[in-house]
Amino acid sequence: MVNLKDDFKDWLIKQGLSVYMLHSILSEKKMKRLLLFASVTVLFPLSASAQSDQSLYAKPIVNQVVEQPDMKKLYSDVFNIQDVNNDKFISENEFSYLVNAVDAEMNLTEQEKNDKKVHLLKTFAEVDTNKDNKLDRDEFRNFMVAETQFEAQDRLNTMSKIMNAPDPETEMEKRMEQSLAQLKKATEDMKKISPQDMADSLIDNISNSIIEENFFQMDKDKKGCTTKDEFVTYMRQYQKNQCEKLPDIFKEEYLMSEEELGNWFDSIDKKNENCLTKEEYAQGFLGDI
């Protein structure tokens, strides 16, 4: 069984922190886009007739934004983060992490969160053109573009309501105060978390995501357990995929033979019934790290 070195743990923590930093970049990118959409709406207020199809205004702007090199790289980076098992697809299980992340959006009401989750799942189904319940890079990019267009149109709707309010300046000031209050609360909450606790939480989240996705893929018939053959076949390919991300010094140590994987299965299949549960796999996976 593989025992990962302290150096690898440090490397993994850095990967976790890089995920955190990317989310910060995403937030910054999102704000830049929203400011762009807002400025266009302010400079060119929508007439009553145009408000029925504001996507005519949003889509040209979005198409320009998403074709920028930094945005293309951003979409690729997001894909790589969502693809936790590095199999070059975003499965419906991996996509569920993105959907559940909506719960962390403090500026949304519970109803708005539920509506957004429904919308995300609907968009997933629409961009999954071959209906295999997973997204390749092109399909995921189409998803991101569709969401950016949806976000743009939603922003245009909001700005249109503000500009058409009896007192637009007061309405804008009210909304800004609400946003600042939410930002202040989020900042205060962040201050309560130590850097080490944040790193530990990131590592836990990464590990849990990998465990969930791996077992989701291994448990072909979705009966809650996986056989030794299923385990060895999947884990062998999973480790090969993961080696693409690893520093060279760890690749030889990380990659296990089929025999080693079979022995690992036997050691964590506590009931010895050729039926490994997710709980047993999780204990074995975390114990190995």
Structural notes for this entry:
The structure is a single chain. With 289 residues, the chain is an all-alpha fold. The protein contains twelve helices and four strands; from the N terminus they run H-H-H-E-H-H-E-H-H-H-E-H-H-H-E-H. The protein has helices spanning 6-43, 55-66, 69-82, 92-100, 110-127, 137-163, 168-191, 195-218, 228-243, 248-254, 258-268, 278-288; strands at 90-91, 134-135, 225-226, 276-277. The termini are close together. Mean pLDDT is 75; it is low at 1-57.
What layout of secondary structure does this protein have?
Blueprint: H1 6-43, H2 55-66, H3 69-82, E1 90-91, H4 92-100, H5 110-127, E2 134-135, H6 137-163, H7 168-191, H8 195-218, E3 225-226, H9 228-243, H10 248-254, H11 258-268, E4 276-277, H12 278-288
Antiparallel strand pairs: 1-2, 3-4
Helix pairs in contact: 1-6, 1-8, 2-6, 3-6, 5-6, 8-12, 9-11, 11-12
Could you give a quick summary of the protein structure above?
Helix content is 73%, strand content 3%.
Core attributes:
289 residues; mainly alpha; 73% helix; disordered N terminus
> How many DSSP E strands?
4
Number of helix segments? 12
Tell me the Rg in angstroms. 23 Å
Strand share of the residues? Answer: under 5%
Largest sheet: 2 strands, antiparallel
Can you list the strand order of the major beta sheet?
A: 1-2
DSSP helix fraction: over 70%
Helices and strands: which structural class?
A: mainly alpha
Query: Which stretches of 5+ consecutive residues score pLDDT under 50?
Result: 1-57
- Judging from the principal axes of the Cα atoms, what is the shape? elongated
**SSE ordering:** HHHEHHEHHHEHHHEH
Terminal CA distance: 10 Å
Overall pLDDT score = 75
